[in-house]
Specification:
The complex is a heterodimer. By secondary structure, chain A is mostly helical. Chain A is built from seven helices and two strands; from the N terminus they run αααααββαα. Chain A folds into two domains: 98 residues, no CATH class; 78 residues, no CATH class. Chain A has a two-stranded antiparallel ribbon with strand order 1-2. The relative contact order of chain B is 0.10. The chains are: A mainly alpha, B mainly alpha.
Chain lengths: 184, 188
């Protein structure tokens, strides 16, 4: 049955995909090639749509592939399959965290992890900036500022820091400014 | 955490908040961080700043989608398994509807050049939001030379050396265990 097949395939991807969308896409690609669910061009389109529409890339891709393969029920089977491993593993981890959080072992581990996470957040800033505020690459020595992106960055920085606007409003303003500034 | 609030009310807030997060985040896990921080740390105070950082570490170390793992973790912390399930449904409901529309209407976004500006704009805005969230969380954590060093090495590891974030967190966990567990433990 195609629904069960989709559910199991996406369960496996959900189980193996460490690190979100950008790791899950290559996994999806090999599964799709193996099952002959979609052509290469269709898959490329799906990845593009998944990155450009709201929501997690992995969920978007699972829903899209499921629908193209077996309709709405297919989309639901794929999405549920993708989420189930997370649901099991994260609930167990969250439960353990609540139980053992105060233990000296967990506390010492967390003291090591927390600054590392700050480093990862800094990388996320660089990642998003490299697709909007700057163009080119630092390593290839062709880095240059993207003026319009920089303006939007500065506007949102000031509005959020000074006026404390909500992040959702900030995203809407960013989208509007982007549409406006890049029209010409 | 506010104990007086009924569980049903909490579950509703989880659903509606993650619904908004799912509707307005483009670009994956880290783009959600400013929204989660504003709603659950600052506004509801259901999650402390330290917990937010811990959750960010845990959801990246486990398999699965970062955004989904975050909704499950926060949902569970607030209202157990029903909370985890409802928060996740809230997160994915509008992406699923939007994608279903795309899948049936055969809309081709790649041809829509005028939308490029929208995506560049959103990324530029998200850069500012993550920067501010990072500074707030960082000021809580980066309090001595050790923490600055770990943060800098982690940044270089993922940025320059392309090391997987999960491995960086694992290494930092071992380091924390050795430095704060074993070494400090011996001194007692």
């Amino acid at each position: 049955m195609i629904y069960l097949e989709l559910l199991l395939t996406f369960f496996r991807i959900g189980m193996l995909g460490f690190g979100g969308g950008y790791v899950i896409i290559p996994l999806l690609s090999s599964e799709i090639a193996r099952n002959h669910w979609l052509t290469g061009q269709e898959f490329a389109d799906i990845v593009a749509v998944s990155q450009m529409t709201p929501g997690p890339i992995g969920i978007n891709a699972a829903t899209f592939i499921g629908i193209r393969t077996a309709g709405i029920l297919g989309g639901l089977s794929a999405t549920i399959g993708m989420i189930l491993p997370s649901l099991i593993l994260v609930v167990i981890t969250a439960h353990m965290m609540q139980k053992f959080k105060e233990s000296t072992l967990v506390q010492s581990i967390l003291k090591g992890i927390r600054p590392a996470v700050i480093g990862l957040i800094a990388y996320a800033v660089i990642f998003f900036a490299s697709m909007s505020v700057v163009t080119g690459s630092l390593f290839e020595r062709n880095l240059s500022l993207e003026l319009r992106g920089l303006v939007i960055f500065a506007v949102i920085l000031v509005l959020t820091k000074v006026k404390r606007i909500h992040p959702i409003l900030a995203i809407i303003i960013s989208a509007g400014l982007g549409l406006l500034l890049y029209r010409f | 955490m506010d104990q007086s609030m009924s569980r049903l009310r909490k579950v509703w807030i989880l659903f509606s908040t993650f619904f908004r997060i799912g509707t307005f985040t483009i670009g994956g896990g880290y783009a959600m961080l400013p929204l989660i921080e504003r709603e659950f740390v600052e506004r509801r105070k259901w999650v402390t700043q330290e917990e937010m950082i811990d959750i960010l570490a845990i959801v990246q170390s486990l398999p699965g989608i970062i955004a989904v793992n975050s909704s499950i973790f926060i949902g569970y912390q607030v209202a157990r398994i029903p909370g985890a399930i409802i928060a996740t449904i809230g997160l994915i409901i509008s992406p699923i509807l939007i994608i279903t529309g795309f899948a049936y209407l055969y809309i081709n976004v790649q041809d829509a050049d005028y939308l490029q500006g929208l995506f560049i704009g959103v990324r530029a805005g998200v850069t500012a939001l993550i920067l501010l969230a990072g500074i707030r969380l960082g000021s809580k954590v980066l309090t001595n030379k050790f923490s600055w060093l770990v943060a800098a090495v982690s940044l270089l590891a993922v940025w320059i050396f392309n090391i997987h974030a999960g491995l960086v967190i694992l290494a930092a966990a071992v380091l924390g265990f050795v430095v704060f567990g074993l070494l400090k433990g011996d001194k007692r």
